[in-house]
Amino acid sequence: MAIFGYINTLENQAHDKAFKQAFHYLQTTDLDAIFARVSPGNNITVEIDGKNLFAIFQEYDSKLHENAKTEAHKIYTDIQYLHEGSEIIGIAGLPDIAAAAEYNSEKDIYFPKATHLSHLILTKGTAAILFPEDLHAPGMAINNTPSRVKKIVFKVKL
Question: How many angstroms separate the CA atoms of 25 and 43, rounded?
Fold first, then answer.
């Protein structure tokens, strides 16, 4: 199941080499300089270890809960790090799939319906590690009031 917290907490719990590389990247990179080139609809992808580990810098407005999509992956684990803003990520397990969905192997994503979602609140400086068995609905507005978010999604190949 998902691991959630501040980076130092995640470092103590997630010992995979690629996770450590992602945390090191967060701690040693001028993130603001990269986000200066990001805008809504204009993401920037940075390869850290080729297709084994890369980061997608995003800026967007969080969405109403009814507009959130539940997604999952088979090849990559996500580390979703909030640089600015706050949002809710809905979380469920594979046994909670209510309706299956077609898998897009090129993009490593599918959008199943979940019977229910537990909620994690991400705020500045926190992250969630979402494994392939974690269905997740990211980007939901807190109190259903949209706000601007700057997020980095690290894709860690299994």
Answer: 18
